[in-house]
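Appendix B, record 7
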Amino acid sequence: MSAVDSIERVVARGVVKTYGTTAALRGVTATIESGRLTLIEGANGSGKSTLLGILGTVIRPTSGDVSYEPLGDDTGLVRGTIGWLSHESLAYPDLSGRQNIELAASFHGLDAQEAWRRAEERFELGSFAVRPLRTCSRGQRQRIALARALVHQPSLVLLDEPTTGLDRSGVARLLTVVEAEVARGAAVVVVSHEPEVFRQRAAARVVLERGRVVADAT
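Structure tokens (predicted):
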């Protein structure tokens, strides 16, 4: 991906999201920079996943705006440079892990077999990756989903509860991947119910409470 197609900074300004009479976000302003890890924290119901969904262009804010510098607000262009790991894998359960990764690579115009070879080595994908995804454990599905999310070297990486289903070695592997993505220059954003796992590595923290930013530390 060329620098022209890369996101260098994401700026959310006064973002409000309501669902009927319920306010999920109340005027959130935050800046996400490339080459660093930003941790979004808060209790259940504070708006973390809603904010991540808005940053990932899958949720439309009720008001306020998000700009992706230097790409602007062209959603189609922006989506091509986002890597998304949802709380659920959202992969095709009847395809194998390998097929899911190769399919994602093809969507981004990459050589599917070469993308698979890189993912297999980087994420230590064993024989489970050639079985239907539905037969894999939660942790195995998480590894495949992460490999798929990063297959195109996105400039904005959004990770929603990435430690779910991972054992200690899986968490260590995940942290190595996060550090490598930051070193590569990606803007990495993490929402986690285990924020202490990421705090030492986070260059910025956005703390939400009832849909408002109560702390924005860099």
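Remarks on this record: The first strand starts at residue 9 and ends at 19. Strands lie at 9-19, 22-33, 36-41, 63-69, 82-85, 156-160, 187-191, 204-209, 212-217.
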